[in-house]
Design a protein that fits this description.
about 725 residues; mainly alpha; Leucine-rich Repeat Variant; three-stranded antiparallel sheet; 3 strands; HEAT; repeat
Length: about 725
C-alpha cells in the first residue's frame, strides 16, 4: 500500500507556473502513487537522480519532508529508501546539512519490518560520522534519545545500534545520559529490546572508558547473562569476548569468569552452543592461564554435552583450541585432557558430530608429531574412514595431505589405503560412488606414481561396473585425473586401457568406451584424439547394436571441433553419411545432427564444402532437406528421401510470406562471397538474389522469410 499527498501537496505541487524543473519530481510523485510496487521501487532507486535535478536546497525543503510525511509503503520499497538515504549527504549540501536526513531515517527506524529498521540504523550510523561534534549533540543525540524512549519496542531496538557511534564524540554530560539510556534498555520489559541491547553490549563496551566498563558494563553483562530468556543470555556470551579483551587478568578472574562458567553450564543448550561456538575467541581473550584453569574443564564438558549440536560446535573448535595452547604444555594437555574425549566422539551416535570432528582431527597430526599420530590418531582416522556417513569419509580423505606430511606416504598406504580399497569395492553402489568422487582429490595428494601402483586398477574396474551411475562417475573421474596428471600420463596409462574396452562382448562396456572418449578428447588434445581415439570410434560405427551406433554419431559430434580438417573431410564425414542412411531412426537422427556440426566446423575454417555433402534440416520442417537445383529447373518441395538422393546444390528457394513466387538464394559458399548485399524477399526470375549469410539468417529467425526446400523438376 502506498500513501501519497493529495492534490496540490508535495514537492513541485505548484506546477501550474509551467516550470519544467518541476517535472522530475512530479514524475517521482506519480510513480510513488502507482499501484505497481515495482514502479514505486524503481522511483525510489532514482532518488539520487531526482535530487540532482532539484538541487540541494529543494531536496532539503521539498523532497525530504515529502518522503518523511507521506510514504507508507511495501517493505522492499522502504528498504530501498533507507539504503538510498545513507548516501544522500552530498545531495543535501554536504556535512553541514547532514541533519536534514535524520527525520526520514528516524521514521524508517521505527517500522515493524526488521530488515528495514536494520538498514535505517546502518544509514544513520554512516551519517553520524559526517556530523560535527556540535551538530552531533544538537541533532543526532536527541534522535537517539527519542528512539530509546519511544513507546514501541521497534524504536528502542533501533536505538541500541546507535549508542556506540555517538558516544566517543559526545561531551562528558551527554556521555552520562547515553550510558543511562543504554542501562534502561538492558533492563527493558520487552525481550526483543533486551536482545538488541545484549547484541550491542560488546560494541558499546569498546568505546567506553575502562572505569565505566568495570562499573557499568560488567554488571550489565552479568544481568543479561542471567536473563530469563535464553535468547538474551546467548547474546551476552558473544559480548563476553569483547569485554574480556578490555580487562586485566585479575579483573577477568573476579568479574567475568564466574558468569562465563555459569553460561558454559547453562540449562539452555542454545547458550552452551554459543559458548562452544565462541570458544576460540574466548580462549584468546582470557589468555593461557585462565584457559588452563577454567576453559579446558568447560571444553571437556561441552565435548560430552547431552545435545548433539553443542558437541558438534565444540568438535569444530578442537584444532583451534589445541593450536592456541602454550607450546611448552601443549602435547601433555592434548594427550591427557583432550584426546580421551575425541576418541569418544569418533563413535558418536550423531553424524553431524562425527563429521565436525573429521573436518579438524587430521590437523592434530601436525601438532602431535609422527609418533603420536601413528600410535593414537591413525586408529581414529581408520575408524572414521570406514564410517557409514559419507561426509565423515570425505572430511578424512580431504585432509590426508596433513597426515602425509607427518608420517609419510608409505606409512599412510599401509594404514589407510586398504580401507579406501575396501570401500571402493563395497557392495553398496552409493559407497562406491562416494569413493569415486574423492579419487581426484586423493590422487592429487598421493602423487602419480603411488596412484598408478595402488589405485589405477580401481579406476578402470569402475568403468565396467554393473551400475550406470558408477560408470558415469568413473568416466568423469578419468577426465579429472588427466587434468591433474597430464596428457602424457593419459596416453601411456589410461587411453590404451579404455580403447581395449571397444571389443568387449557387453555392449554397455563398448558404450562406456565412447563416453570415455567424449570426456578425454578435450583434455588429451587433437593429436591423441586423432591418432588413437578416432580410429576406434570409426570402427565402432559398424557395431551390431543401434545404441552403440548412435552413440558413435554423438561421439563424432563431440570430438568434431577437436579433430583436424583432414580427418573431418576424409574419415568422419563418410562415416556420418553412412550412419545417416541407417535403418534405425535414432541412428539417422544423431548422424544428421553430427553432420550439421561438422559442416559448421568446416565453414568456420572457410574450407570448400561440397554442396552434395551438406545435409541440414529446415528450420520449420525436419522432414525436408535442402536439395540441389540445376540451371533451368523448376522448384518444388521434396521429402527427406528425395533430398538424400540429390546432386550438387546450386541454390535454395525462399518464399516471402504471402508471396506467390520463390526467391532463389545461392549456396552457403556463394553467400559468404556476397556479404553486405541487401536481401530481396521475392525475385520472380531464375537469377540468384544477392543475400549475405548473416542477413539471411537474421531474416529467417525473425520470420520474414519462409524457407522451403526445393528439388529440380525436369
Amino acid at each position: 500500500m502506498a500513501g501519497a499527498a493529495g492534490p496540490g501537496t508535495g514537492p513541485g505541487a505548484a506546477g501550474g507556473d509551467g516550470d519544467d524543473s518541476l517535472y522530475p519530481i512530479a514524475v517521482l510523485i506519480d510513480e510513488l502513487r502507482n499501484e505497481d510496487v515495482q514502479l514505486r521501487l524503481n522511483s525510489i532507486k532514482k532518488l539520487s537522480t531526482i535530487a540532482l535535478a532539484l538541487g540541494v536546497e529543494r531536496t532539503r525543503t521539498e523532497l525530504l519532508p515529502f518522503l518523511t510525511d507521506t510514504i507508507y509503503d511495501e517493505d522492499e520499497v522502504l528498504l530501498a529508501l533507507a539504503e538510498q538515504l545513507g548516501n544522500f549527504t552530498g545531495l543535501v549540501g554536504g556535512p553541514d546539512f547532514a541533519h536534514c536526513l535524520l527525520p526520514p531515517l528516524e521514521s524508517l527506524a521505527t517500522v515493524e519490518e526488521t530488515v528495514v529498521r536494520d538498514k535505517a540504523v546502518e544509514s544513520l550510523r554512516q551519517i553520524s560520522q559526517e556530523h560535527t561534534p556540535v551538530a552531533l549533540e544538537a541533532h543526532f543525540v536527541p534522535l537517539v534519545k527519542r528512539l530509546a524512549s519511544g513507546d514501541w519496542f521497534t524504536s528502542r531496538t533501533s536505538a541500541c545500534g546507535l549508542f556506540s557511534v555517538c558516544y566517543p564524540r559526545a561531551s562528558h554530560a551527554i556521555k552520562a545520559e547515553i550510558r543511562q539510556h543504554f542501562r534502561s534498555l538492558c533492563s527493558d520489559d520487552t525481550p526483543m529490546v533486551r536482545r538488541a541491547a545484549a547484541s550491542k553490549l560488546g560494541e558499546f563496551a569498546k568505546v567506553l572508558e575502562l572505569d565505566s566498563v568495570k562499573s557499568e558494563i560488567v554488571p550489565l553483562f552479568t544481568t543479561l547473562a542471567s536473563d530469563e530468556q535464553d535468547s538474551v543470555r546467548l547474546l551476552a556470551v558473544e559480548a563476553c569476548v569483547s569485554i574480556a579483551q578490555l580487562l586485566s587478568q585479575d579483573d577477568l578472574e573476579s568479574m567475568v569468569m564466574p558468569t562465563l562458567r555459569q553460561a558454559a553450564e547453562d540449562k539452555s543448550w542454545r547458550v552452551r552452543y554459543m559458548v562452544a561456538d565462541k570458544f576460540s575467541e574466548l580462549q584468546k581473550a582470557v589468555g593461557p592461564k585462565i584457559t588452563l584453569h577454567d576453559l579446558i574443564p568447560a571444553f571437556q564438558n561441552l565435548l560430552k554435552d547431552c545435545e548433539a549440536e553443542v558437541r558438534a560446535a565444540a568438535a569444530h573448535k578442537v584444532k583451534e583450541l589445541c593450536e592456541n595452547l602454550p607450546i611448552e604444555s601443549r602435547e601433555t594437555i592434548i594427550m591427557n585432557q583432550i584426546l580421551p574425549y575425541i576418541k569418544e566422539l569418533v563413535s558418536d551416535s550423531n553424524q553431524h558430530v562425527k563429521s565436525a570432528l573429521a573436518s579438524v582431527i587430521m590437523g592434530l597430526s601436525t601438532i602431535l608429531g609422527k609418533e603420536n599420530t601413528i600410535e593414537h590418531l591413525l586408529p581414529l582416522f581408520l575408524a572414521q574412514l570406514k564410517d557409514e556417513c559419507p561426509e565423515v569419509r570425505l572430511n578424512i580423505i580431504s585432509n590426508l595431505d596433513c597426515v602425509n606430511e607427518v608420517i609419510g606416504i608409505r606409512q599412510l598406504s599401509q594404514s589407510l589405503l586398504p580401507a579406501i580399497v575396501e570401500l571402493a569395492e563395497d557392495a553398496k553402489w552409493r559407497v562406491r560412488l562416494a569413493i569415486i568422487e574423492y579419487m581426484p582429490l586423493l590422487a592429487g595428494q598421493l602423487g602419480v606414481e603411488f596412484f598408478d601402483e595402488k589405485l589405477n586398477s580401481l579406476c578402470m574396474a569402475w568403468l565396467v561396473d554393473h551400475v550406470y551411475a558408477i560408470r558415469e562417475a568413473a568416466t568423469n573421474n578419468l577426465m579429472k585425473l588427466v587434468q591433474k596428471f597430464g596428457t602424457e600420463w593419459a596416453q601411456n596409462t589410461i587411453v590404451p586401457k579404455v580403447l581395449v574396452m571397444a571389443n568387449d562382448p557387453n555392449y554397455l562396456h563398448r558404450m562406456t568406451t565412447l563416453f570415455c572418449i567424449n570426456a578425454l578428447s578435450e583434455a588429451c588434445g587433437q593429436e591423441i584424439t586423432t591418432k588413437q581415439m578416432l580410429p576406434i570410434v570409426l570402427k565402432m560405427a559398424g557395431d551390431q547394436v543401434a545404441n552403440v551406433r548412435f552413440n558413435v554419431a554423438k561421439s563424432l559430434q563431440k570430438i568434431g571441433p577437436i579433430l583436424d580438417t583432414a580427418a573431418l573431410q576424409g574419415e568422419v564425414k563418410p562415416v556420418l553419411q553412412k550412419l545417416g542412411q541407417d535403418e534405425d531412426m535414432d541412428v539417422k537422427y544423431f548422424a544428421q545432427e553430427a553432420i550439421s556440426v561438422v559442416a559448421q566446423r568446416l565453414r568456420k575454417l572457410d574450407l570448400p564444402v561440397k554442396d552434395s555433402e551438406e545435409l541440414s534440416t529446415s528450420g520449420t520442417d525436419k522432414n525436408h532437406f535442402l536439395r540441389p537445383r540445376a540451371p533451368g529447373e523448376d522448384a518444388r518441395k521434396v521429402s527427406a528421401p528425395e533430398a538424400s538422393a540429390a546432386g550438387s546444390q546450386r541454390g535454395l528457394a525462399l518464399e516471402g510470406p504471402g508471396e506467390p513466387g520463390a526467391a532463389l538464394l545461392p549456396s552457403s559458399l556463394s553467400l559468404r562471397r556476397q556479404l553486405g548485399s541487401k536481401c530481396q524477399q521475392s525475385v520472380h526470375s531464375e537469377a540468384c538474389c544477392p543475400v549475405s549469410l548473416p542477413l539471411f539468417w537474421e531474416c529467417f529467425l525473425r520470420g520474414r522469410l519462409a524457407v522451403q526446400t526445393v528439388i529440380p523438376v525436369a
